[in-house]
Amino acid sequence: MNRALFGKMTLNRFSFVFSGSLAAFLMWGCSAVICLVNDKVTVQPATTTAGYHSADNVTTNVLGDITRTAACLDDSPRCTLVCKICDSYFEDQMTCLSFLFEHNCLPQFNKGMESLNNTDWCVWDKVNSLYSSLSQCTEDISDCLLIPWPNSLVEDIFVSIHSRFFQECSMEEFSDPSPQIVFALVITPICLIPVMVSLVVLKTKNGDGTP
Fold first, then answer.
1. Domain, as residue range, for 13
2. What is the largest CA-CA distance in the chain?
């Protein structure tokens, strides 16, 4: 009787100790998981900068938790990253747009122009690619942020680069032709009209058999 009672008490004591150990283990495990999650949440974003049309040209998070923002063109990696940096680090989109123009579009253009001789700045074949890339860069970023293009920031950029690089370029090839050339181009078809009418009338008379 006493032995049975002692065995029952021993079993109950073992169950109590086992339950306490299990509870302590679960508490330790939950604490470790919570700490791990907190460590991930508090990881600071790392920035990488690359050239235009690169997926690394804006700030991203080391955890890779890129999410689409509300005011964004689409879910493409480029647009998602552009919208992410604007929402995370800037209060308004126009300020972010100006930042991206200054640090993503213009450096490539300025570097390319500075690699050319000053005399080549006015040769369209030399600067066409750089000029088009700059224009495309500003358009793509504006589209991602759903900002109309062209806009005031784009106009300011092109006024700035024209003042810096193209101010001394001659515009003769794009100027209007001289008055003499304009007069010749206008008067030639006017003079041809009576000649064509006379030929038609003469052809008609010959077809009727009349002299």
1. 1-42
2. 154
Residue 187 has what pLDDT?
87
Q: Which residues of 15-54 are buried (b: 16+ CB within 10 A; e: fewer)?
A: eeeeeeeeeeeeeeeeeeeeeeeeeeeeeeeeeeeeebee
- Count of CB atoms within 10 A of residue 180's CB? 8
Report the alpha-carbon distance of residue 166 to residue 3 in Å, rounded. Answer: 106
Question: Which pTM was predicted?
Answer: 0.52
Query: Rounded to 10 degrees, what is the CA torsion of 119, 125, 129, 135?
Result: 80
Is residue 44 classed as helix, strand or coil in its secondary structure? Answer: coil
Q: Say whether both 56 and 155 belong to one domain.
A: yes
Q: Where are the beta strands (DSSP E) in the chain?
A: none
Q: What residue has token string 């750089």?
A: 130
Q: How many domains does the chain have?
A: 2
Residues 18 and 94 in one domain: no
What pLDDT, in 10s, does the model give residues 44-60?
A: 343 333 334 333 343 33
